[in-house]
Design brief:
By secondary structure, this protein is α/β, with parallel strands linked by helices. It has 16 helices and 13 strands.
């Protein structure tokens, strides 16, 4: 029989609700697993075991009194240190923010609590959540439990490592340029970037963000099964008036034909043979499940990535340049300099033109997805990178940056995207990315489940 820390979120919720196990037992099993494994992977960097046990007892008490604690009844989850959780510092991987203690929960954290989830820890992120690698001077480096020589991804590398290691069943992550999808890919689990406005979010510690983050940054779940992604999304998407971008769209809309476009190399991005093979295999799995899949180019991705760069660097250059200098961490300073180099000089004219072009690109993508509701494309052009390769040289950074084209492009469009683990090449996980129209996460989940059913579920990894 599998250990409790290997169970899926859906199995845990059902078992706790039925009385097969208590929420306290489940929580303690995950805390014990973390005590054993986390010193190696360094995925969880803030935790309060007593508070976790108290939350689990509250779930058990609710069940005893005949109440339904929620869809994530007793499920151990983690939150990311760049979102507010009352009583904890929202460090964002920064020494400068080690004492920035939140007094209220971010809406996504509040929604997880209201769903009956038990928060067992807070997970690492690179400084400023700026990289596809997870390391910082405050919390240290997070390792990939499947291969310590590979990046766990970033910026939600702590969340993906925690899920893959069995420290939690669900990890909350954030995504403005791939920070949910790439870590899930790198650690061999699943990760969903929801549509803009699907999941409410707001950090009172930081206040309102600039327009780039407002139209591109989202919170989403990382998990080991697509069913758990669905369950977590239902929990996270409850309304909250603090987020004016929140959109109360129904999750299951139906009516979409099972048609998909297989786009092997968007805008001629370089793609490794192993990535191509994973895409072709996923396409066959979809066909076997009754989907019509045709190879064809998708709408522009590089133009969307350019918009992302302009909007993100306009915000970062204006609001964070001083913080980057004061934090004085060489890694983030180098990465920021490379991103500025790629974005070029940014002024008001470029920002205005980028926002104008964004509307046209969204229209083009939505028209495409109206007829073909699903795009199957790479998560990354390469297998997960070696640890810290992005800071070795400008050439290495450029290689990483180009491989992450779809990670950078899709957030500018506000579209939902799902990273689906499909297997491995040696010790390196491989997977594919699914893209659908706005608020059509149901299409992604249906396709993801079809791909998952024809393969092998991601397992929990124990780092050596």
């Amino acid at each position: 029989m599998a250990d409790i820390w290997e169970w899926s979120a859906s199995r845990i919720a059902a078992a706790v609700r039925s009385g097969e196990v208590s929420a306290v037992e489940v929580t303690q099993a995950h805390l014990d697993r973390a005590a054993q494994v986390n010193p190696t992977v360094n995925a969880i960097v803030q935790h309060d075991p007593a508070a976790a046990i108290a939350a689990a007892r509250a779930v058990d008490a609710a069940i005893t009194s005949g109440k339904d604690p929620g869809v994530l009844c007793g499920v151990p989850v983690t939150t990311k240190v760049n979102v507010d959780q009352a009583g904890h510092a929202t460090t964002n991987g920064l020494r400068l923010q080690r004492d920035l203690v939140a007094h209220e929960d971010n809406p996504v954290v509040a929604n997880l609590r209201r769903s009956g989830a038990v928060i067992v820890g807070r997970t690492n992120t690179p400084a400023f959540s700026l990289r596809w690698f997870t390391n910082n001077a405050l919390h240290g480096q997070t390792l990939n439990p499947r291969d310590s020589g590979l990046t766990p991804g970033g910026s939600s590398g702590g969340a993906s490592s925690a899920v893959a290691s069995g420290l939690c069943a669900v990890g909350q992550g954030t995504d403005i340029a791939g920070s949910v999808r790439y870590p899930a890919y790198a650690c061999g689990v699943h990760g969903l970037r929801p549509s803009l406005g699907r999941v409410p979010t707001f950090n009172a510690t930081g206040g309102d963000r600039f327009i780039g983050a407002q139209v591109m940054a989202v919170s989403g779940p990382i998990a080991r099964t697509i069913e758990d992604i669905r369950l977590s999304l239902v929990a996270m998407m409850a309304p909250d008036a603090r987020d004016p971008w929140y959109t109360p769209a129904p999750l299951d809309q139906g009516g979409a034909p099972r048609r998909a476009a297989l786009c092997l190399a968007p805008d001629d991005m370089p793609v490794a043979p192993e990535v191509t093979a994973a895409l072709v295999d996923a396409a066959e799995r979809l066909r076997d499940a009754g989907w019509q899949v045709d190879e064809r180019p998708c709408p522009p991705m590089r133009a969307a990535a350019d918009i992302n760069a302009v909007l993100w660097m306009a915000e970062t250059g204006y609001a964070a340049r001083d913080l980057i200098d004061r934090e004085a961490e060489p890694e983030s300073q180098f990465v920021f300099a490379q991103m500025v180099r790629h974005a070029g000089a940014i002024d008001l004219d470029r920002v205005m033109l980028a926002l104008k072009a964004r509307s046209g690109l969204i229209r083009e993508w939505e028209m495409f997805l109206r007829d073909i509701p699903l795009v199957l494309c790479p998560v990354s052009g390469e297998l997960p990178f070696a640890q810290q390769i992005d800071i070795r040289s400008e050439a290495d950074f450029d290689r990483v940056y180009e491989a992450q084209l779809t990670q950078r492009g899709l957030p500018a469009l506000g579209l939902p995207a799902l990273s689906v683990a499909t297997g491995a090449s040696g010790t390196a996980p491989v997977g594919v990315q699914l893209v659908a129209g706005r608020y059509r996460e149901d299409v992604l989940l249906a396709a993801g489940e079809a791909i998952e059913r024809a393969g092998v579920l991601p397992t929990v990894a124990t780092p050596l």
